[in-house]
Design brief:
Layout: H1 5-11, E1 17-18, E2 24-25, E3 53-57, E4 64-72, E5 78-86, E6 89-100, H2 104-120, E7 124-126, H3 136-146, E8 151-154, E9 164-179, E10 182-204, E11 207-224, H4 228-237, E12 244-248, E13 253-256, E14 258-260, E15 263-270, E16 274-280, E17 287-289, H5 291-300, E18 308-315, E19 321-334, E20 337-346, E21 355-356, H6 358-361, E22 367-370, E23 375-378
């Protein structure tokens, strides 16, 4: 993550930070933007990560995960961060990490910090109906798992060594987050899983071994109780391999398109004063607006005489032609992307549709239309 990210964690997104004495504290849980739309990720949460994420999609539209791997978490190594979206709505954030015998002391340190925090922070209260908090039980399970024999053998190139749990034990606790004595609706769950595993590990650069022995996993998840129905929808459809995808590019600007009668509409803001729906029309040479929209822009004072570049003859799909005034729009804003000095024609027909043509589209580094999810994706 970016330098100075832990100050960001305090101020905005994540909910656990280390104090100088080693205790973990939960901060600003209420600031996590649960309920925010998927399309806002790029301009909010995504700007705080410098590493690439993976965007995993379910076969059900709107069920997405944005996953960051190998992100440092305080002094406890790197974690996997997962932002879960259901129906294009952020419903949960989780942090997860595996530990094997070689880093068990880090796991114990993390567990002790959690225990200290949960006992001392008055804004965190156990929800006893969902489980108890007893640090000794998971420690006992993990110790038993780590006592199992560990065999290390050189891995044969191409050998398939499966990563699996056996003799599994799981333990869960849930805590409510309060703000000045009032329940915030936010819940933090802590899940610990212990058992034995077989997996390939890299003991040193270029040297891989087959590890057979103890393994534990800790997962911290936070969610808003008001979105629990959406969260349970995701749990109900979750299966192995349900999510597939590739690298997620947070620099992409994704705009929701509205399909109607075989064409796509999208909202465009003109000169920071007027927001109106345009038709996406890659076949049109220029952006085109109607006479009444042009009149509104003139009255707003955002069009100057110097913006006019003359007139041009346009040929339409039916073969007809028309002469139209041409001027440059100073600013067009599409989603989070602004483009400037966009060549635009003015139709003499008051009912003429507004077209987003090539004079705008060619200003993007690249763009594509996702016909499955009805999205315009701009880079």
């Amino acid at each position: 993550m970016k330098k100075g990210i832990f100050s960001f964690i305090i101020a905005y997104l994540l909910f656990i930070i280390p104090q100088c004495q080693g205790q973990l504290i939960f901060e600003n849980v209420k600031a996590i933007p649960f309920g925010s739309p998927f399309l806002s990720f790029r301009s909010t949460i995504g700007t705080q990560f410098s590493t690439n994420a993976h965007l995993l999609k379910n076969k059900f539209p709107g069920f997405n995960r944005i996953v960051y791997e190998g992100v440092p978490f305080a002094n406890f190594g790197t974690f996997e961060y997962v932002f879960q979206y259901v129906k294009d709505t952020l419903v949960s954030l989780s942090l997860e990490k595996d530990f094997i015998i070689y880093d068990r002391e880090i796991f114990y340190s993390l567990l002790r910090n959690l225990d200290q925090t949960l006992r001392n922070d008055k804004d965190i209260k156990l929800l006893p109906e969902y489980g108890k908090w007893d640090i000794q039980k998971p420690i006992k399970w993990v110790e038993e798992a780590f006592k199992k024999s560990v065999k290390k053998t050189n891995v044969i190139p191409g050998e398939d060594v499966h990563d699996k749990y056996v003799e599994l034990e799981t333990w869960d606790s849930y805590f409510g987050i309060y703000d000045k004595g009032l329940y915030s609706g936010k819940i933090i769950s802590i899940s610990i899983l212990a058992g034995n595993t077989e997996r390939i590990i890299e003991l040193s650069p270029g040297f891989k071994s087959n590890y057979i022995g103890g393994r534990c996993n800790i997962k911290l998840e936070i969610f808003d109780e008001s979105l629990q129905n959406l969260k349970m929808m995701e749990v109900a459809i979750r299966t192995d391999g349900a999510y597939t995808g590739g690298v997620y590019n947070p620099t992409e600007n994704v705009i929701k398109l509205v399909p109607s009668n075989g064409i796509y509409y999208l909202p465009v803001e003109i000169n920071n004063v007027l927001k109106i729906n345009f038709i996406v029309d890659p076949g049109a040479a220029d952006v085109s607006i109607s006479a009444d929209v042009f009149s509104t822009l003139v009255k707003s004072g955002t069009i100057k005489l110097s913006d006019f570049v003359g007139s041009s003859t346009y040929r339409f799909a039916d073969g007809s032609t028309a002469v139209s005034d041409v001027f440059n729009i100073s600013v067009l804003k599409i989603g989070d992307t602004e483009i400037h000095n966009v060549r635009t024609s003015v139709s003499t027909n008051l009912k003429a549709p507004l077209l987003l043509g090539q004079s705008a589209l060619k200003k993007f580094k690249s763009y594509r239309i996702d016909n499955i999810n009805n999205q315009l994706i701009i880079e």
